Structure prediction request, 373 residues.
Amino acid sequence: MKIKVAIPYTGKEEYKSIKKIVFSGKFVSGKLVKKFEENFSKYIGLKSAAAFNSGTASLHAAMNSLNLKKNDEVIIPSISFMSTATAVLHQGCTPIFCDVNLDDYCLNIEDFKKKITRNTKAVIPVHFAGNACKIDEIVKIAKQKKISVIEDCAQAHGTKYKNKKVGSFGDISCFSFYATKHMTTGEGGILCSNKKKLTEKSKIFRNHGLVSRNDHVTLGYNYRMNELAAAMGLEQLKKLDKFNSIRRKNSLYLLKELEKRKSKWFEVQKIDKSIFHTYFWCPLRIINSKISIDDVIKKLKKKNIEIRTRYKFPLYKQRVIQNLKIKSSQNYKKLYLKNSEKIAGRIFGLPNHHKLNKNQLNYIINTVANLYD
Ligand SMILES: Cc1ncc(COP(=O)(O)O)c(C=O)c1O
Prediction:
């Protein structure tokens, strides 16, 4: 039987809740979105939130709420999902790509400092694959330089740094509830902040710029979360810590056992002791230059193991970035960020979901450890 890389953690609680909405006929602008916003912001440890129909929409709204303008520079890691960059572009700003660390795949602080110019207005650290960036240092530097911090927590619901949830360090934080995430609403997202002004502004932005029935004060979008999604989100939030603890248990077992095997073809992600990792991915990096990711996928597929593979290229190598005609202090065509180039197309995630039993975990360990022996 095929071992899938991810399986959503849903059950009868979500079903019951959604069924009620179906029969109520109240699909939008109801009580549940508000309740979900309250519960989620409380979970992260913040005062307010605004829910969206995707994580990308929440990132775009975050940019807008901070008043970022055309030609403002926003520093982002070059290893992330594309929407970290496209949110910047949708706001008319200029993405400045920063290198990541080779061991934890998160924003490299030294390169971040180098990339700050007088045009820099914000930074978007990505808590990659359930790991946490050195977010206290990033916030400290950002404060000194008077730039805003938008935490991209799309892959890190419940992750902690020094005992505090990620998403509660910067000015604003954004989460995704896409199907494979730690918790899901099918599609969805949320933005959290202690600055109510920012979340209130984002609520107007997500609803066509409306402040009252016929008064559109600003350019907006339809980025609203619906009640069905919120109903699901409320139930999923109750299960999040349990789901995370299973992912952690499975991932820690896989990684510990794999490290013991001392295989030469991969290395495991380095986790700092101050981090409570939630393992969106259970990540490994290919370190043997003769082995390609496509070959790993093919070989594991034959053994019925599905893996997560993304980020085949650093973001700046994507055609959408290469073909940009915007003013930027970075020449995207010539850009070469050493660690990002080493990581792109070399990392993959092992299955770590709640349906895996010990036999399957051991099968994954043995298969991966012996794949190139
Ligand atoms: C790091 C990161 N940022 C943003 C997003 C965007 O979230 P969504 O797919 O909900 O728009 C994702 C989604 O995978 C992501 O991984």
The chain has two domains: 12-236, 240-369. Residues 12-236 form a domain with the Aspartate Aminotransferase; domain 2 fold (CATH 3.40.640.10).
